[in-house]
Amino acid sequence: MEIVAHGIDLVDCPRIEEMVKRHGERFIKRVFTAAEQAYAEANKDKIEKLAGRFAAKEAVLKLIGTGWRGKIAWTDIEVVNNAAGQPEVTLSGEVKKLAEGLGIEHVSVSITHTANFVIASAVAIAEKGQS
């Protein structure tokens, strides 16, 4: 296994809060999967959790080198926590196709936040020699 790409993103939590206030459910349903929404709702720091998922999705789009465009849907990237609380990424749809085309077999993500900022880092891993 080898690291073939890296993406990082910084999100301003008040910006996400403003998007939620301005666009409400339309924004939330467009960007976040049902599992991501449930996770955020179950936490007192809902905006930080949503901002973390948003930053992770942006970091993944950066590592595949496309940004958000074409047939890509925000919900093609899902970030949920495993039993130990570590965030894990699942790709689907167009993002999964693009990642597979690059030989990416796994995406590892790390998220950290304060009340104002979130940083997410995503690393793409492939079988040795496939990149």
What does this structure look like?
The chain has 131 residues and is α+β, with helices and mostly antiparallel strands. It has one domain: Alpha-Beta Complex (Ribosomal Protein L22, Chain A), CATH 3.90.470.20. Helices cover 42% and strands 31% of the residues. The chain contains 4 helices and 5 strands. The strands form 2 sheets. A 3-stranded antiparallel β-sheet has the order 1-5-4. A two-stranded antiparallel sheet has the order 2-3. A hairpin with a 5-residue loop joins strand 2 and strand 3. Helix 1 packs across helix 3 and helix 2 packs antiparallel against helix 3. The chain is globular. The termini are close together.
Topology:
Blueprint: E1 2-12, H1 13-31, H2 34-41, H3 46-64, E2 77-81, E3 87-91, H4 93-101, E4 104-113, E5 117-126
Antiparallel strand pairs: 1-5, 2-3, 4-5
Helix pairs in contact: 1-3, 2-3
Tell me the CATH superfamily.
4'-phosphopantetheinyl transferase domain
Give the CATH class: Alpha Beta
Instruction: Specify the biggest β-sheet.
Output: 3 strands, antiparallel
**Sheet/helix structural class:** alpha+beta
Large-scale geometry: globular
Distance between the termini: 10 Å
Percent of residues in beta strands: 25-35%
Number of helices: 4
Which fold name is given in CATH as the topology? Ribosomal Protein L22, Chain A
Strand order of the largest sheet: 1-5-4
Annotated CATH architecture: Alpha-Beta Complex
Please tell me the total number of domains.
1
**How many whole angstroms does the radius of gyration measure?**
14 Å
Average the pLDDT over all residues and give the rounded result.
93
Classify the helix fraction into a percent range. Answer: 40-55%
Low-confidence segments, given as residue ranges, are: none
Series of H and E elements: EHHHEEHEE
Number of strands: 5
